[in-house]
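Re: [help] complex structure
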Amino acid sequence: GESVGLHLPTLSVQEGDNSIINCAYSNSASDYFIWYKQESGKGPQFIIDIRSNMDKRQGQRVTVLLNKTVKHLSLQIAATQPGDSAVYFCAETSAGGTSYGKLTFGQGTILTVHP
Amino acid sequence: GAGVSQSPSNKVTEKGKDVELRCDPISGHTALYWYRQSLGQGLEFLIYFQGNSAPDKSGLPSDRFSAERTGGSVSTLTIQRTQQEDSAVYLCASSYNLMETQYFGPGTRLLVL
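Output below.
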């Protein structure tokens, strides 16, 4: 079935570096994408989202880029801090058909930030 | 304001017992979702409610799983005759409407012995 996947399962960076986490999706009908951060023992925490009518959206220290042509999503974290260490998930859904309202999650990328 | 809350936070049960998991969504959120997170399967969708109605139950793993929502607020996920493969973290999320941002609770960690 349709799925969302990540290229890199782990990412290790130094504090202050910029981080880029990538995600590939396969459902061309997907029109809403979200990045979540999950710390150990906690539920996923919303970071930023983007809809398919946009290709870039910025938040505080985070930017999401969407390339619909190649079905690719990325999360950029500027000036990464140790508190950013967590598992990051991309998720997608579409407004039509049986996918409506259901989030399909990628496998997750473990981000480790070294002081 | 208060986020999504779930109870219990942890549950250990014996194989064959029934368990009931509870979710309190964010006040005013009409949509509520249940997901399951396990090591082997990642995060998988189980069921969603729009109001008290669950239009699609196809994500429930078996007929031992059921969910209900009353009064457009609290939801319970019931697992009958639990099996060891049911061990996972059960996550609840809510959103203002369908296709809006889903906010997750802390989850219930279920261990079936």
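The interface with chain A takes residues 4, 31, 33, 35, 42-45, 48, 50, 56, 58-59, 91, 93, 98-99, 101-107 of chain B (CB under 8 Å).
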